[in-house]
Amino acid sequence: MTVPENTHAPTHYGDWRDDFYRQGYVVLKGVIPREKAAYYRQKELDWLQSFNLGLDLNDPTTWTAEHLPQSFKAGMYLNYCAAHERYVWEARQEPAILDAFAQIWGTEELLVSFDTINVTFPGRTDVTWAPWPHVDQAPERPGLSCVQGFLNLSEAGPKDGGLLLMEGSSAHFDEFFALNPPDRSQGIGAKHYDFYPFREEHVRWYEQEKGCRLVKVCAEPGDLILWDSRSMHYAAFPEPESQTIRTIIYVCYTPAALATEEDRQKKAELFRRWETTTHWPHCNIHGHGKAKIGDEVDPNERDEPLEKPVLNDRLLKLAGVKTY
Ligand SMILES: [Fe+2]
């Protein structure tokens, strides 16, 4: 199977896919009911409290690193088997989410990433935050190769934590890197192959030369946000006015036929170890390993999820453990 060369909406679909290709992202409203979103949200918050580090959801003074397991960018939990909790796998098997990705790729035979969750507390003063505009697709990789997404579980208004995305930027991916040959001399690790950070002048090029516009992607609980991995984006930290704890589950699927047998086996092994990966489902398969404190494994680490998923046929195929 080859990756579709659908850089600029090759077809008129007459549905949300037209918006997806034009804007480089789309918000699908209410793919799960609000009550179901509230259930997933509560599971995330329960999971954070299960570490017994003194986190009190009613006491913002405890919303600090001291009372939380380690995370990346103050919200992404890359360790502690977070990606394999039962509720996360339940979310990955939500029919409407699977259906959205099946519509994009034209197949129901999909692999899912072992992406994680994000819980970002507002009002934190113990962390610093700076924009990191980037794409999550290697400049060397042609065409639409990955579609990222998350299931939104909390209100994401203009001031809340959420996603900032350069609308329309995906269509200019090839031109940008033709004009700005990627500097790959900085010793990027294999894990970061599908990542490219932009400088301020690059952001201005998209805005001033290409007429793109940085948008805060607003959403409600139960919405699914999808974006082309060639879209420039980064996470917005909650602004001081926000009192909302941001809760999301990352979801990302690509056709199983795109994976080599070697990568599928790597993925199956990471599943057996309950590891978290990047958002790439079919290639660029690298685990995040255990959380460390210095050279030692964090004593809060786990050998298995708090609640293990039910290993049904669909899950095992999405995980790459079984073949289609
Ligand atoms: Fe990203």
Automatic annotation (TrEMBL):
Coiled coil: none annotated. Gene3D superfamilies: q2cbj1_9rhob like domain (2.60.120.620). Transmembrane segments: none annotated. This is Phytanoyl-CoA dioxygenase. It comes from Aspergillus japonicus CBS 114.51.
